[in-house]
Recover the amino acids of this structure.
């Protein structure tokens, strides 16, 4: 009887977790503005693009600029039900007369963007539920990209799933979303992409120091690397991001 009850409970949990799974496809886009055009790019997004994206079925997640923005970058994250929906939404957006008018008016004295990078991603099985919410004061976000040695991405995901995510929360590092690149994307076999948030830069430094000195973290890292280092040399990329005034996530 107890075994049957346990199986029933486990089955219910599995169904619940499955129902809550985030099966959407995400797109991380980075625009590099031409010199002197970043403010105009923000105005176009604020006054036109964000609303038109929503009109055509896209989910605006967050818009940021790097804290040290020497490259005149705008970084943003979008979500779609799937790749087909994404392509259909973008086609409708690009053909929208309101977008064509906004684009033409904003580029009368020159194009705003010189380069666009984009990546398609899916949430990991341990990524928390994404909460698109604004906090006051706005948080400082951090985009972190980890690059692993060959065949070590599964080990990195296991370490985050079983240890890191919980330890981050323990030490005040707010988990936002964890993503792996979709098959076919450059880095799909060896990169973890994730966002976390901090109260401010001082809190980031303090909380990461506590995390890195935690005995549970030291043990988890040592245990996970008994058969070799997980990350390549200099395999951690970190960019501090400040949300724009029109970002849904702050």
């Amino acid at each position: 009887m107890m075994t049957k009850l346990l199986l029933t409970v486990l089955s219910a949990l599995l169904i619940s977790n499955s129902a809550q799974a985030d099966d959407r496809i995400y797109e991380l886009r980075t625009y590099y503005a031409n010199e002197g055009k970043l403010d105009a790019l923000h105005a176009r997004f604020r006054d036109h693009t964000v609303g038109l994206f929503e009109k055509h079925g896209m989910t605006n997640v967050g818009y940021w600029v790097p804290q040290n923005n020497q490259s005149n970058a705008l970084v943003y994250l979008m979500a779609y039900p799937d790749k087909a929906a994404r392509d259909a939404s973008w086609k409708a957006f690009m053909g929208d007369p309101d977008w064509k008018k906004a684009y033409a008016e904003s580029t009368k004295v020159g194009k705003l963007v010189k380069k666009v990078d984009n990546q398609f991603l899916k949430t990991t099985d341990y990524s928390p539920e994404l909460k698109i919410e604004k906090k006051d004061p706005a948080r400082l976000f951090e985009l972190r990209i980890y690059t692993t040695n060959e065949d070590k991405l599964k080990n990195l995901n296991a370490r985050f799933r079983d240890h890191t995510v919980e330890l981050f929360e323990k030490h005040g590092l707010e988990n936002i979303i964890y993503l792996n690149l979709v098959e076919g994307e450059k880095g799909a076999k060896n990169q973890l992409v994730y966002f976390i948030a901090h109260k401010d830069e001082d809190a980031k430094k303090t909380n990461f120091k506590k995390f890195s000195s935690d005995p549970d973290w030291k043990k988890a890292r040592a245990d996970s690397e008994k058969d070799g280092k997980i990350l390549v040399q200099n395999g951690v990329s970190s960019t501090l991001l400040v949300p724009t005034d029109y970002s849904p996530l702050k």
Notes: Helices lie at 2-20, 38-55, 83-94, 97-106, 153-170, 201-212, 215-224. Residues 43 and 190 are 36 Å apart (CA to CA). The domain at 23-123 is CATH 3.30.70.100 (Alpha-Beta Plaits). The chain has two domains: 23-123, 125-244.
